[in-house]
Amino acid sequence: xxxxxxxxxxxxxxxxxxxxxxxxxxxxxxxxxxxxxxxxxxxxxxxxxxxxxxxxxxxxxxxxxxxxxxxxxxxxxxxxxxxxxxxxxxxxxxxxxxxxxxxxxxxxxxxxxxxxxxxxxxxxxxxxxxxxxxxxxxxxxxxxxxxxxxxxxxxxxxxxxxxxxxxxxxxxxxxxxxxxxxxxxxxxxxxxxxxxxxxxxxxxxxxxxxxxxxxxxxxxxxxxxxxxxxxxxxxxxxxxxxxxxxxxxxxxxxxxxxxxxxxxxxxxxxxxxxxxxxxxxxxxxxxxxxxxxxxxxxxxxxxxxxxxxxxxxxxxxxxxxxxxxxxxxxxxxxxxxxxxxxxxxxxxxxxxxxxxxxxxxxx
Length: 363
Ligand SMILES: Nc1ncnc2c1ncn2[C@@H]1O[C@H](COP(=O)(O)OP(=O)(O)OP(=O)(O)O)[C@@H](O)[C@H]1O
Hints:
The protein is α/β, with parallel strands linked by helices. 29% of the residues lie in helices and 22% in strands. Residues 35, 42, 44, 62, 64-70, 80, 83, 243, 307-308 line the site of adenosine-5'-triphosphate. Its main location: membrane.
């Protein structure tokens, strides 16, 4: 059978503005992160673009294995071996006097410059706080050490900053907490201590990787509130990684939906919830429990995210997509296309529909 011809759109990379707009703190373009394995090259992140503005939160959502964590680890140059940044730029506006823009992708992962950025100008909150702390030092020791490294050489001042930050994250008796070891704190308190650790150096960017998954619902709400307040107080920006679209709705200004190492939809949060176009995003939205649908079974997207080694040509979502069309979707690499101002979608069917002036309802 003759394959239908596919007209390739010009790839719409998310326009570069970091050199003109001071509010843009980070601009990631065409990021590729590969793990060379015995079975072949695992393409964990493949041509990812996004940007981050001061006081804004970018939500990154997608199922397990879609590349969210690896993409953000690349921003800190902490991708585990044998993984490496194979291509792309990670332009970051430094918080020094010149506000110089550096390309993190080109820095030596063990060099002085990335060590000054990591934990200082760009900080991370992990899902599991025990990972961030050493069990053999007190919380106070660890906070003070980070502040001495990034902010001041004066130990007294560093201690004062540590106590103030613990207060800001809602820790009761901060002086006493300084003397405690991580295992002596409850889960919620440990999470707060880790947020304090991330914020004590006034980072320009805070990366929160599933920061509330291990917490109960009440503490979850407090932690989310805290991240929002602190973003405003510290004039910083947040990258929020989660599986949970409810959390995305609450936290994000813009959202990147990732699937199989690629951004498949990128837009502002309202458009995501009221005008998502990619069949994968629509599937994720249909799987959110709602009060009105209490007695109906929840929709779920059948199958799992494949392992990104030796992938077939075409759309990565092809094998699970309700709209998949042989000869159209599985022929060439599908580009990310700007369908409306600031709304980018990686789907041939959506592009066809948009041209006809129709809407893709994902049926
Ligand atoms: N250290 C590693 N070695 C080999 N492959 C890896 C490694 N870390 C991640 N990967 C692979 O890279 C791809 C992306 O993984 P990543 O952890 O970024 O996904 P994720 O979207 O963050 O998932 P989760 O929500 O479960 O954290 C997956 O196929 C994963 O198996």
